[in-house]
Amino acid sequence: MKQSKTERLSSSTAVILGIIADKQALLRSPAAPTNVSVLAGHRWRLAKAFYNYRWFIKSKLGASVGTGQDDARIVAVIVAVDEVNAALRAYVLHWSNGDNAARWPDYQAAAGATLDEIAAAVRRLSADTAAILHDTAAAAAQRGATAG
User: Fold this and answer.
1) Alpha-carbon distance 134 to 7, whole Å?
2) What is the pLDDT of residues 93-136, one digit of tens each?
3) How far apart are CA 128 and CA 130, in angstroms?
4) Within a 10 A sphere around the Cβ of 76, how many other Cβ atoms?
């Protein structure tokens, strides 16, 4: 069954927030320093999920950017999703090198803070994108009703 744009957005958001919640729980577990490879797997799953999320947002909203009819909300969402992507890439690149078990206190603190920031940003981006998708669908319906 085909998902609506809003359902797909919601599903992608849930996947990202689920990965973050799982990783946060693992970071707090007593055995976490011995599970660095599992944490790395979460890091890469998050990067892949966010890549797909970012692609979805940009593909659904980005078509109108640069047409002279730019909606400031769309531009803000696209800029914000690119900023989160840059932060996530920096996090992945930084913590994918070296022995994170040996740097455990630094890794645990940085990972926890970065994940909190990404989760908050994804919640905002999803709410803003859902509102734009809703408004776009309502405007299209209104144009269709007016034309008929």
Assistant:
1) 12
2) 998 888 888 989 999 999 999 999 999 999 999 999 999 988 88
3) 6
4) 13
Residue 37 tokens read as: 């490879």
Residue 30 phi/psi, 5° resolution? -60, -30
Q: CA–CA distance from 147 to each of 40, 135, 136, 140 (Å)?
A: 54, 18, 16, 10
Using alpha carbons, list the distances in angstroms from residue 70 to 55, 84, 99, 127.
19, 21, 46, 19
- Non-local CB neighbours of 144 within 8 Å, separated by 6+ positions: none
DSSP structure string for 10-23: HHHHHHHHHHHHHH
Q: What is the pLDDT of residues 29-78, one digit of tens each?
A: 988 888 888 889 999 999 999 999 999 999 988 776 655 555 889 999 99
Cα 124 to chain center, whole Å? Answer: 10
Residue 98 DSSP code = S
